[in-house]
Amino acid sequence: MLIAVTSLKSGGATTVAAALAAVWPEPACLIEADPAGGDLGGWHRLPDAPGLASLANACRTGQADLTEHATRLPFGVNVVLAAAGRPQASAAIGLLADTEPARWAKERPIVLDVGRLEPGSPALPLLELADMVLVVAGGDVLSLLRISLADIPVRRAGLVTVGPLAHPREDLAGLLPLPLVAAMPWDRHSAEVIAGTRRPRRAWTRVGLPATARALAATLATPTIPAGGDPR
Question: Based on the number of CB atoms within 10 Å of its own CB, is 108 exposed (0-12), middle (13-18) or buried (19 or more)?
Answer without folding.
Answer: middle
